[in-house]
């Protein structure tokens, strides 16, 4: 039968994991079978995706990609290969969305932000002390490369507006809104009916404070617009923006991207 | 008299008014608002020209800052 081993198609006579490892002369500590880590000597089946990892060993670059994606649900990897996703803004929402999508191995990201990293960003954004003063575009590119060097990242160091957005995100099927200001959220939704009408737009609205995590949800809004958040918790005086709820909201957006790529609903 | 549904609730308007006028009368912060009319986003360029009677179901969202 034919199986996929560390990203390559291989013909084997082995019936189970143990025999396969003997046949291929593999020494490993971690066995991953179709996205699941197991110590059991499971039977192999046609097309099964196998990753065998030796703990602490740096793999060759061509094998690294398959190892990074080994814990993903296998069918998702196919959808990720052709995906190009836009992220409008690289603050608390955008930096988290970018890293989540990069970690699962999205093929292409198009990200835009004109800002630089400053100390008050660090309570919720994915940047580190060493990034202070750096363009967010450059900092996120570095972080993505460190997490998953196989993601093709296009950065736009621009202030997005209703005129330039369609050009920036022209290759993207889905655009995640990750602005700070409410009027920009409103602006991108407005473009969903005009210059971005062939795309799906995901908005984040309402994630400040330390209210219950369970108030943050994903809803379908219009034919091509979704909203994530609790819809009401506005960032204002005495109502901060902190890593946990901003991260929850960002990952609502990121998970919706995966679901839409898999043709699932909210 | 006009019957419409706004954010899931039936509303009865005595007179037909523009979408823009409806937003003002109901205290929405215009710059933060998005309007979905019968499943499609109604572009803000049309808020003054469009009458509420031109739709049946409206979902009006007022976005809040933070990200």
List strands and helices in order, with pairings.
The complex is a heterodimer of chains A (266) and B (67).
Chain A: E1 2-5, E2 8-11, H1 17-23, E3 30-33, E4 36-37, E5 49-53, H2 61-68, H3 74-81, E6 84-88, H4 92-104, E7 108-112, H5 136-147, E8 152-156, H6 165-168, E9 174-177, H7 182-191, E10 200-204, E11 217-222, E12 225-229, H8 243-261
Parallel strand pairs in A: 1-5, 6-7, 6-9, 7-8, 9-10, 10-12
Antiparallel strand pairs in A: 1-2, 3-4, 3-5, 11-12
Chain B: E1 2-6, E2 9-13, H1 19-25, E3 33-37, E4 40-41, E5 57-62
How would you briefly describe this protein structure?
Chain A is an alpha/beta fold.
Task: Please provide a written account of the structure.
Chain A is α/β, with parallel strands linked by helices and 266 residues long. Chain A is 30% helix and 20% strand. In chain A, the strands form 2 sheets. A 7-stranded mixed β-sheet of chain A has the order 8-7-6-9-10-12-11, sandwiched between helices. Chain A has a 5-stranded mixed β-sheet with strand order 2-1-5-3-4, with no helix packed on it. With 67 residues, chain B is mainly β. Chain B is 10% helix and 34% strand. Chain B has 1 helix and 5 strands; from the N terminus they run E-E-H-E-E-E. In chain B, a hairpin with a 2-residue loop joins strand 3 and strand 4. Chain B is globular, with a radius of gyration of 12 Å. The N and C termini of chain B lie far apart (41 Å). The mean pLDDT of chain B is 97. At the A-B interface, helix 4, helix 7 and strand 12 of A face strand 3, strand 4 and strand 5 of B.
Short key terms for the protein model shown above:
heterodimer; A: 266 residues; alpha/beta; 5-stranded mixed β-sheet; 8 helices; elongated; B: 67 residues; mainly beta; globular
């Amino acid at each position: 039968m034919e199986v996929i081993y560390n990203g390559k198609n291989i013909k084997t006579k082995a019936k189970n994991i143990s025999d396969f490892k003997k046949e291929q002369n593999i020494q490993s500590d971690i066995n991953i079978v179709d996205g699941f880590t197991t110590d059991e000597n499971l039977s192999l089946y046609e097309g099964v995706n196998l990753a065998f990892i030796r703990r602490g060993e740096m793999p060759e670059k061509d094998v690294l990609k398959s190892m990074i994606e080994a814990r993903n649900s296998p069918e998702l990897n196919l959808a990720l290969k052709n995906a190009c996703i836009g992220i409008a803004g690289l603050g608390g929402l955008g930096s988290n969305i970018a890293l989540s999508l990069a970690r699962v191995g999205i093929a292409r990201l198009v990200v835009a932000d004109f800002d630089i990293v400053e100390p008050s960003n660090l309570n919720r954004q994915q940047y580190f002390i060493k990034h202070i003063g750096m363009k967010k575009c450059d900092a996120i590119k570095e972080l993505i490369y460190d997490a998953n060097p196989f993601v093709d990242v296009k950065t736009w160091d621009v202030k997005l507006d209703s005129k330039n957005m369609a050009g920036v995100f022209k290759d993207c099927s889905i655009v995640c809104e990750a602005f700070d200001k409410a009027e920009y959220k409103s602006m991108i939704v407005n473009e969903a009916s005009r210059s971005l009408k062939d795309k799906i737009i995901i908005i984040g609205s309402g994630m400040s404070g330390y209210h219950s995590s369970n108030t943050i949800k994903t809803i379908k809004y219009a034919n091509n617009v979704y909203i994530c958040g609790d819809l009401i918790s506005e960032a204002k005086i005495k109502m901060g923006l902190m890593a946990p709820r901003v991260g929850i909201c960002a990952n609502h957006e990121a998970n919706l991207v995966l679901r839409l790529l898999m043709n699932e609903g909210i | 008299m006009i019957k419409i549904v706004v954010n899931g609730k039936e509303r009865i308007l005595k007179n037909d008014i523009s979408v823009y006028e409806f937003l003002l009368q109901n205290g929405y912060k215009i710059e933060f608002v998005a309007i979905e009319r019968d499943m499609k986003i109604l572009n803000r360029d049309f808020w003054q020209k469009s009458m509420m009677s031109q739709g049946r179901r409206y979902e009006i969202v007022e976005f809040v800052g933070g990200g």
